[in-house]
């Protein structure tokens, strides 16, 4: 299973986002090559209007449940309404370096 494609397809179908970015950040962590274990997901959708952050994250976690039961160890979620995204200048947060044995800096 290609986790990135699964996440993109599943989120796209459920939320019809105006912006969706799924980044495999596994290479930044101390995992076997090709692990598909750490992902950053940025979603901008009208579906998030009037929803608190925890509800947005629960929705994405529900959509990603299959992957979370398998290869995915970490899922960094950045969920915005279109107005919030515009206020951020269309920029997501930068992921911090891994603190648990990163290969990124080796």
What are the main properties of this structure?
106 residues; alpha+beta; 3-stranded mixed sheet; 3 strands
Description:
The protein contains 4 helices and 3 strands. It has 106 residues and is of the alpha+beta class. A 3-stranded mixed beta sheet has the order 1-2-3. Helices cover 32% and strands 19% of the residues. The chain has helices at residues 3-15, 53-63, 65-68, 82-87; strands spanning 19-24, 38-44, 74-80. The radius of gyration is 14 Å and the shape is globular.
Helix content: 25-40%
The shape is globular
Average pLDDT confidence is: 84
Report on the biggest sheet. 3 strands, mixed
| H/E topology pattern | HEEHHEH
- DSSP strand tally: 3
Counted by DSSP, the helix tally is 4
Spatial order of the strands forming the largest sheet: 1-2-3
Could you list the spans in which at least 5 consecutive residues all have pLDDT below 50? none
Structural class: alpha+beta
Q: How much of the sequence is in beta strands? A: 15-25%
User: How many angstroms does the end-to-end distance come to?
Assistant: 28 Å
Radius of gyration: 14 Å
């Amino acid at each position: 299973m290609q986790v990135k494609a699964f996440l993109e397809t599943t989120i796209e179908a459920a939320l019809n986002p105006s912006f969706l970015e799924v980044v495999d950040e596994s290479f930044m962590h101390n995992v076997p090559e090709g692990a598909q274990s750490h992902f950053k997901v940025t979603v901008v959708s009208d579906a998030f209007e009037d929803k608190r952050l925890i509800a947005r994250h629960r929705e994405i976690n529900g959509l990603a449940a299959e992957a979370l039961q398998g290869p995915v160890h970490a899922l960094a979620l950045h969920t915005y309404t279109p107005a919030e995204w515009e206020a951020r200048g269309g920029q997501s947060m930068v992921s911090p370096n891994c603190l648990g044995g990163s290969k990124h800096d080796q």
